[in-house]
């Protein structure tokens, strides 16, 4: 996600506010159907809420083909795991009387939710991912980060 590029990119908003001359050149029949599209306003796609893209990339990387229903099932499972960890972390925050979620609370929640070997593997992979993200964000914009 390169949201920071929005902050440094030059803003060109001339397409959002057309001049009266450009507006007069728009076909009146087009205004009847969809006024926003006729004015040149671009519709944005709805944000996909889920892990479908990541599941697809992982399956493709492993050379697997999956049906849509299998991807939906995995997506539901990942969402359920995330909810379980978040719920456990909230209970730990209440138990310790804290208001701020920290990495130690997340680690404890993962250890409580998963079996020992799976929890250790998940924590090690999470630590590697965070380290790669920090390394990538510290790199310059000219040098793209390589996925590890």
Report on this structure.
The structure is a single chain. With 148 residues, the chain is mainly alpha-helical. The protein is 64% helix and 0% strand. The protein has helices at residues 4-8, 20-24, 28-33, 35-39, 52-62, 68-96, 103-113, 116-138. The longest helix has 29 residues, at 68-96. Residues 1-24 have low confidence and may be disordered.
Radius of gyration: 23 Å
Shape: extended
State the assembly state of the protein chains.
single chain
User: With helices defined by DSSP (H or I, 4 residues minimum), what is the helix count?
Assistant: 8
Put the structure in a nutshell:
With 148 residues, the protein is mostly helical. The protein is built from eight helices and no strands.
Give descriptors for this structure:
single chain; 148 residues; mainly alpha; extended; disordered N terminus
List the helices and strands and how they pair.
Elements: H1 4-8, H2 20-24, H3 28-33, H4 35-39, H5 52-62, H6 68-96, H7 103-113, H8 116-138
Helix pairs in contact: 6-7, 7-8
């Amino acid at each position: 996600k390169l949201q920071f590029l929005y902050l440094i990119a030059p803003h060109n908003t001339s397409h959002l506010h057309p001049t009266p001359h450009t507006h007069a050149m728009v076909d009146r029949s087009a205004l009847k159907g969809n006024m926003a599209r006729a004015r040149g306003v671009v519709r944005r796609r709805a944000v996909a809420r889920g892990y479908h893209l990541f599941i697809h990339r992982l399956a493709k990387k492993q050379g697997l083909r999956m049906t849509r229903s299998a991807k939906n099932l995995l997506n539901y499972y990942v969402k359920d795991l995330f909810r379980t960890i978040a719920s456990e972390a909230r209970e730990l925050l209440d138990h310790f009387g804290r208001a701020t979620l920290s990495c130690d609370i997340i680690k404890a929640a993962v250890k409580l939710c998963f079996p020992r070997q799976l929890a250790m593997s998940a924590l090690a992979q999470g630590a590697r991912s965070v380290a790669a993200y920090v390394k990538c964000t510290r790199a310059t914009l000219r040098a793209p980060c390589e996925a590890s």
